Amino acid sequence: MQPELELLIADDDPTIRDLCSRAFRGEFRLLIAKDGNEAIALLKATHPAAILVDEMMPGAPGSAVLRLAKEMMPEVPRLLMTASGDPAAAMEAVNHGEIHRFYTKPLKLMEVKRALLELIARARADDALRIELQTLRQQKQKLPSTRVAVLCEGDNGDRIEQACGRRGFQVVRARNLNDLERVVGAGGVDVVVVHVGMGEPEVREVARLANNVDEATALVLVDPETSIQSLSLAFSIGATDCLTAPWPDEVLLSVRMERAAARPRDKRELRRLTFDVVVANRELHNANRRVEAGQVRLLNGLVRALEARDPYTAGHTDRVADISVRCGEVLGLATMQLEVIRVGALLHDIGKIGIRDEVLYKPIRLTPVEFEIIKTHTTIGARILEGIESLVCAVPIVRNHHEKLDGTGYPDRKVAADIPLEVRIVSGADVMDAITSTRPYRPGSGADEAFEIMEPMVGPHLDAVVIDALRGLHREGRLTDLLQARG
């Protein structure tokens, strides 16, 4: 089945075009341009879901192509590639809003693919929200007529009723305060109009009642004689308007009543939208949790599959996780840090999924080339988890659990100051379990012997604080139950 999304790629380098084509063809229908002019022609003839162009091209530079794309289709994600070591031009394009992301060559194609899919999903979500808002605005025309409750006698009351009539509002004339309170208390009133002559306590009581029934209700005070007291009262109760002398004509009065009525409409629409957004966010959060939980189960299943194929490593990740968490507790780590340690330890060897079986399960000593292959499980595992938001926190443990304090570890040759405590804990637990676990070429050591074996590693390789915590657990009898060898 042909992909639904179209991606415009423009680059004058045929190698880059070929690499991008092979990397992206599974998710996109590709529109390929060899220079800036071809890219502009494709822009005018199509409407791609995203655009990825090189900066230095014949015909027109990539930033010019993306500026035109912004004018023609501003919602479409725009990405820029550059081979320059100085990204100043690309940063200028970002700051002027012409592009969403830029990448220096050589490209990390999987990273670019993830960015493309995320940006397209975000653009589609924004477009859906715009459509939803337009629909809501159209539905406003179908809402019930605005209802206005008026306690204002004589000509003033008549004028207000006539002005509301010009706007198609439904007017309910109250005969007295009790009648007004009954109407407001029944609900469904958008605007309450009261004469200040009824007395300040009564006006405040009406305002309180209206707010309790529906906080969106607008309140309009009428004072034909104009006084500082009425204006102060209107301000203190949060009135939407205060009608005073000189009395506005019917047209202006209808405009002011429309403005008053707009407040409850806008507030209620905002309330509906807020509720919808809260519900949608909750559903999205729950959906993400379900997806992430499924991803964790899948990764755990893969780890178990690895262990099932090699009985000598079965249970290794569980033991390392248990030892690491108990060690972290001794060191006083917070609950969140302990959870990161638990997840990181469970998945620390997940990258071995990408190692060939003949290397991973070789029963004799590895050659130097084969050992270099084994070492890549740290970076493979980190790449796997980087794409899962809920597991990104575990990436440092997965990538760095074979680093050594003296900088001789792998893959990044980090030194002590650059290795987080969570990583050091898992590294110590990993070594502890390796020594105490049975292998085809040797039996597992007891805990006492394991500490003797690890002693030369403390300092250059392992953290003394971590090993002391493990020793403390052993002295308290809280370590042996976690080890494969029970001695």
Q: How is this structure best summarized?
A:
By secondary structure, the chain is an alpha/beta fold. 55% of the residues lie in helices and 10% in strands.
Description:
The chain has 487 residues and is of the alpha/beta class. It folds into three domains: 5-135, 3-Layer(aba) Sandwich (Rossmann fold), CATH 3.40.50.2300; 147-266, Rossmann fold, CATH 3.40.50.2300; 310-482, Orthogonal Bundle (Hypothetical protein af1432), CATH 1.10.3210.10. It has helices at 14-24, 36-45, 62-72, 88-95, 109-140, 154-166, 177-185, 200-213, 228-236, 250-309, 316-330, 335-346, 357-360, 368-375, 377-386, 395-400, 421-436, 447-454, 464-475, and strands at 5-10, 28-33, 50-54, 78-82, 101-104, 147-151, 170-173, 191-195, 218-223, 241-244. The strands form two sheets. A five-stranded parallel sheet has the order 2-1-3-4-5, sandwiched between helices. The protein is elongated. The mean pLDDT is 84.
Strand-helix topology:
Elements: E1 5-10, H1 14-24, E2 28-33, H2 36-45, E3 50-54, H3 62-72, E4 78-82, H4 88-95, E5 101-104, H5 109-140, E6 147-151, H6 154-166, E7 170-173, H7 177-185, E8 191-195, H8 200-213, E9 218-223, H9 228-236, E10 241-244, H10 250-309, H11 316-330, H12 335-346, H13 357-360, H14 368-375, H15 377-386, H16 395-400, H17 421-436, H18 447-454, H19 464-475
Parallel strand pairs: 1-2, 1-3, 3-4, 4-5, 6-7, 6-8, 8-9, 9-10
Helix pairs in contact: 2-3, 6-10, 7-8, 11-12, 11-17, 11-19, 12-17, 17-18
